[in-house]
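Dear all,

This email documents one entry for the complex benchmark we are building for the journal club exercise. For each entry we list the sequence lines for every component of the assembly. Then comes the predicted three-dimensional structure of the complex as a token string, followed by one or two observations. Please use this as the template for your own entries, and keep the labels exactly as they appear.
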Amino acid sequence: MPITNVLVAGVGGQGVVLASELLALAAIGAGHDAKQGEFHGVAQRGGSVFSHVRFGDRVFSPTTRRGEVDFLLALEKLEALRYAHFVREDGMILVNDHEVEPIRTADTRPYPKGAVAFLKSKGFAVRTIKATEIAVELGNHRAANTVMLGALAEQLDIPDEIWDKTLEGRIPEGLLELNRKAFAMGRERGR
Amino acid sequence: MKQLMSGNEAIARGAWEAGVLFAAGYPGTPSTEVLEALSTYHDVDAQWSTNEKVAFDECIGAALGGARSMVTMKHVGLNVAADPFMVFPYGGTNAGFVALVADDPGMYSSQNEQDSRYFAKIAKVPLLEPSDAREAHEFVKFAFELSERFETPVMFRTTTRLAHTRSVVESAERMDAPRRPFSRKISQYAIPVYARFRRPELEDKLNRLREFAEEYPGNVVEEGSRDIGIVTHGIPYQYVKEVAPGASVFKLGMIYPLPKRRLEQFCARFEMVFVVEESEGFIEQEMASFGILNVIGKERFTNIGELSADLVAQGLNSTSVPSDFAAQTTILPRPPVLCPGCSHRGVLGALKELGVLVTGDIGCYTLGCLPPYEAMHTTFCMGASIGNATGFNKAGEERVVGLIGDSTFLHSGLPSLLSAVYNQVPTTTILLDNGTTGMTGHQQHPGTGSTLKERPAPRVNYENLIQSLGVEHVAVVDPWDPEATAAAIKSGLDHPGPAVIIARRSCRLLPEEKAKDKVPYQVEELNCIQCEDCMATGCPALVWEGDTPHIREWECAGCAMCAYLCPVDAICQVEVSVDANH
């Protein structure tokens, strides 16, 4: 099987690393080779975080080359813009319809409007999912990452039972039901 | 069993399988998780030590005493441990000794970009470097064998990308590595007295290691095209395989000493050979010293930052790397920031107000040199703040503050403070005691009251410790009280001798702090005059929406730093407390 390249991006604290780890675990569960690695700076909170996940027969580079990512899973709109150049020409961007205002810096431009329209104008297939809204309805805004993962799962060929086993094996028991629901809701919205 | 493991977890697993009994280190990204993972094995005695040199010395003792031992550190930690690192090889080890050193090309969490491979050459010790987690797991087991076979410490080098990339590892059972009795050969282990006799033996050992490198199966040629030959190592190997799958590749697993004859044979087959390595041209320079000159190396593969598959493709084929969309749309930066409720904010705010010269140190508070505070004027390395402050004083600067965190103070600040006391230099030190090693993810230290294995430990009493050094002016303050903090710093500066102000409040990200009920603040929009004074906190819970500030309640820790800055009291506590788990 050719390599599937996913890039997960978001803001520190949104669960970028967990979402990408779950994806890599599911890929291994489905019998693939996989590599996953995140990039982040010194900040525990609020910084930009992204993580590469690659799976297939045999994966070499832990990161995908620019212009070769098949799916960008963006947990935040500005972060979708930041990493869109990694996506291949006809690749797909799944974006959480959610804005996290960055901390004020010398760059005083306002938060960009029309991120989704911009990405569409570049030829990418863009799916917008109200993941944070769904997660809040389910009782915890932090589950937005799992909603997004569910939406991505709809695009991948990994069987349901493997996803379920992966969630069960990695999510702490107290949060498992919430995440199962979040995943299922994401799958539904990703259809 | 097949498992998904990070490079760091795989190294810990491999060390455990190799029968490691003792492991010590000091936290440092990207090395930290090795020791954390090792501590989860009940039959490994793993500990945080006060600094890397101490950890190194402890591991020397343990390895001589017969226990397979591992010391872990980041690249700058090796600088701290360089003394024993350079001298231990003169004696050589008894049981297996592996020094894990993690470099950080790209400086994701570091103050410099240092290629630590050169240290192995200076110390004359073998250096192994894996290219992914599976190999890391395998190599580390071999490292212990190699160490015992040649009675030498082995340097095990990783980089951030290896340390933090998860891939599939097949784990095995733990082997039994019985303690090897120590023989009291003074002439082997009392180095200063016998160094002159040990020196030729060190060279002889290195020659034997050179021979071994020729047959070491971790140095492997993968045959491919007759036209393209590439010499590479570690993570760059993965990039090479990605972008030049057909090339003939000589992959080096042992980076020092290199297999001279095999490299000569390989390179003789090609008109030109690419040397693809990250950071400096270490392999290229070694090859040049062997007289292998038909190479293309650093002129095509930058020594600045991290390599990538794109950069390797660019170097091999002159392809271009696509740029981002910043020129076509607004991509605002998200610089690192202090967390909501961070205890450092109160001290940085007070220092900014006082306008004094501040020499800084390594920790989250290093962000104090960035906007909005810009209250810290120098920062170099662990423990430097107090010594630098002393120096500024000697150069005529009368009001200098050294700013240092608790873990860093215990790591290497203490001798500098003692020197300031001894020489009666009137510097003011602010000890930021947030009860943890914050930036690397909350590791225990002698001031936290517990160990890596989460056992209770004596907690350093900073007041007593500092007073016992001879500091006459010691004050403790809560940094969430900005007025008291500013007054305490001022009193320290006014004191004629060395003074220490302990700013004490726990890191907000510690689980016990997170679990506490908190009363968040809110902006009363009707009273807000849009002066933006509150934004000077740089708090991520406080965002500018439309034309007023807004506080994200679930992020607000209730520290009131923004309320303190508001000139019209438009920032007030919310009436109901927010559930800590939300």
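Observations: Helices of chain A lie at 16-29, 77-83, 115-121, 131-138, 144-153, 160-170, 173-190. The radius of gyration of chain A is 16 Å.
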